[in-house]
């Protein structure tokens, strides 16, 4: 989103004040679906239905592979099936090189479509200034073809209409640009127009975030454009505009103001029921999805029950937990037998990985991270492997073998965001120590400070982070064990904070970096979630 940075502190203070206890589906019931659907960071959802199967794409910013793709048969139980791309771009910002980075940029706000037997995903990236369109005949296992457009179309919704293709996009003014029929390029001489001027105006006069996040649906001869806006001193608000023609004229309404639940689109079921698939900013855990019942009145969608998003849904959930959106891993990929290993889909790399610096076959049964260069700290480090944290509580444990670390090497387990903390091992000329470190990135400067240090008398150690998101406590604590059974806390608790420079919920992160000499190696035996 486009924000005036002077208002950032006020925005996130407002989010914190709206805290309230909520329960995820897996903690409350195995049968009745509940909101939030997924208590983990799945922002900017774009949902379609093909027959009786639903598909969703989402945003993962600077993480790779990118644009996660999920499927469901009931709108509440979701399975991660892949990604639209392995890496989006090369260059220093994408590889954390020469002081450049793409934190909080990368790919934003995708659109997902199915047209004439083919799936399409559009997204855009602020660090490249481009819009990307991926397409495949098989969303679950096919190859994705890629087209690049040398223009940035903000929060675009891909539209196929009457044999033509378009992107509907913009911030406050909502615009339409025509693409070639295969949606691979802007059509020379094609339509380019503004369809809604000052789309925010129906929600007020002053805004922290003007109208954006366009998603288009069609029903009963009307085109519906879902947008969000954030009125100053208010909450994120869902807007809907409708028109008989894609080009307008449009009329609009405020359709939902409830706890900031907004941004997404409309989706119908084979039985004819309608829902809005939206998300809510929920502190450090990130932006979490909600499913909102919709009924129709005079061809206008009416969101929620008495204007509120219900806690329970009339849908049966068959899935316990978050499915494969998060996953433990023993790193036993021996059956694959080559370096071209596809890790479990829950894993994403922080920025582009360096293939020469990681392996699960060099030492079978371990994730080996070999330091390829000298770095200053955690946020500079390539080959940091991450998974989402999740609520209401999450615990991750790793077993780390430090035998092959070199003096000056640091490796461990982190709570990753711009304001971060980690528990790890630092190797020195005289031995090794367990350390707990906190740090933050602010105004393009990173400060990192050691909070605790304990001598490590052996080469294998168990590291653990415990995260508490109940009532938006947003606290992480750091632990170690020498035997995997008896645990000791180390350092201080981290007050986790969702910040715009990284623009994503906290991640568990496995990392290793060198401060003196490349070539050292950290071997992770397992990663376990509770």
Automatic annotation (TrEMBL):
Catalytic residues in the record: 44 (proton acceptor), 212 (proton donor)
UniProt record similarity statement: Belongs to the glycosyl hydrolase 43 family.
UniProt entry keywords in alphabetical sequence: Glycosidase, Hydrolase, Signal
Stored Gene3D superfamilies: 2.60.120.200, Glycosyl hydrolase domain, family 43
Pfam families, per database record: GH43_C2, Glyco_hydro_43
GO BP term (any one): carbohydrate metabolic process
Matching PANTHER family: BETA-XYLOSIDASE (PTHR42812), BETA-XYLOSIDASE-RELATED (PTHR42812:SF12)
UniProt-recorded name of the protein: Glycoside hydrolase 43 family protein
Single GO MF descriptor: hydrolase activity, hydrolyzing O-glycosyl compounds
Lineage: Bacteria, Pseudomonadati, Pseudomonadota, Gammaproteobacteria, Cellvibrionales
Residues with site note (Important for catalytic activity, responsible for pKa modulation of the active site Glu and correct orientation of both the proton donor and substrate): 155
PROSITE patterns registered for this protein in UniProt: PROKAR_LIPOPROTEIN (PS51257)
């Amino acid at each position: 989103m486009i924000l005036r940075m002077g208002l950032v502190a006020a925005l996130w203070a407002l989010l914190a004040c709206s805290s309230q206890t909520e329960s995820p589906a897996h903690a409350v019931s195995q049968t009745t679906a509940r909101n939030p659907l997924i208590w983990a960071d799945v922002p900017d959802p774009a949902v379609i239905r093909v027959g009786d199967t639903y598909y969703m794409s989402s945003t993962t910013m600077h993480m790779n592979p990118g644009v996660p793709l999920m499927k469901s048969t009931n709108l509440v139980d979701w399975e991660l099936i892949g990604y639209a791309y392995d890496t989006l771009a090369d260059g220093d910002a994408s590889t954390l090189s020469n002081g450049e980075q793409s934190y909080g940029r990368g790919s934003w706000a995708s659109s997902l479509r199915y047209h004439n037997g083919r799936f399409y995903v559009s997204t855009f990236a602020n660090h490249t200034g481009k819009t990307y369109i991926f397409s495949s005949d098989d969303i679950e296992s096919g190859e994705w073809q890629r087209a690049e457009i040398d223009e940035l179309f903000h929060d675009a919704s891909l539209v196929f209409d009457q044999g033509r293709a378009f992107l509907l996009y913009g911030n406050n003014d909502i615009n339409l640009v025509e693409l070639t029929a295969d949606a691979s390029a802007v059509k020379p001489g094609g339509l380019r127009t503004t369809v809604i001027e000052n789309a925010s105006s129906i929600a007020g006069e002053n805004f922290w975030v003007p109208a954006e996040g366009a998603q288009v649906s069609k029903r009963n001869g009307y085109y519906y454009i879902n947008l969000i806006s954030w009125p100053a001193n208010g909450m994120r608000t869902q807007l809907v505009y409708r028109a008989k023609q894609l080009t307008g004229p449009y009329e609009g309404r405020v359709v939902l103001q409830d706890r900031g639940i907004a941004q997404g689109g409309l989706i119908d079921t084979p039985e004819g029921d309608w829902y809005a698939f939206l998300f809510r900013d929920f502190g450090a855990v990130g932006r979490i999805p909600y499913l909102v019942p919709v009924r129709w009145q005079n061809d206008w969608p009416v969101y929620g029950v008495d204007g509120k998003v219900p806690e329970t849904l009339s849908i049966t959930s068959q899935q316990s937990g978050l499915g494969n959106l998060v996953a433990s891993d023993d790193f036993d990929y021996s059956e694959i037998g080559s370096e071209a290993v596809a890790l479990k889909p829950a894993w994403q790399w922080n920025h582009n990985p360096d293939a020469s610096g990681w392996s699960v076959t060099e030492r079978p049964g371990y994730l080996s991270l070999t330091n390829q260069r000298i770095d200053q700290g955690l946020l500079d480090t390539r080959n940091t492997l991450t998974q989402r944290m999740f609520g209401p509580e999450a615990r991750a444990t790793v077993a780390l073998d430090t035998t092959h670390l070199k003096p000056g090497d640091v490796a461990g387990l982190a709570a990753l965001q711009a304001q971060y903390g980690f528990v790890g091992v630092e190797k020195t000329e005289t031995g090794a120590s367990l350390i707990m470190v906190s740090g933050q990135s602010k105004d393009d400067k990173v400060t990192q400070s050691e909070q605790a240090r304990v001598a490590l008398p052996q080469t294998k150690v168990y590291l653990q982070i415990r995260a508490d998101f109940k009532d938006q406590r947003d606290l992480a604590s750091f632990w170690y064990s020498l035997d995997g059974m008896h645990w000791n806390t180390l350092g201080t608790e981290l007050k986790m904070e969702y910040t715009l420079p990284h623009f994503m919920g906290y991640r568990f992160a496995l990392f290793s970096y060198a401060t003196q000499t490349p070539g050292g190696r950290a071997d992770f035996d397992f990663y376990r979630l509770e």
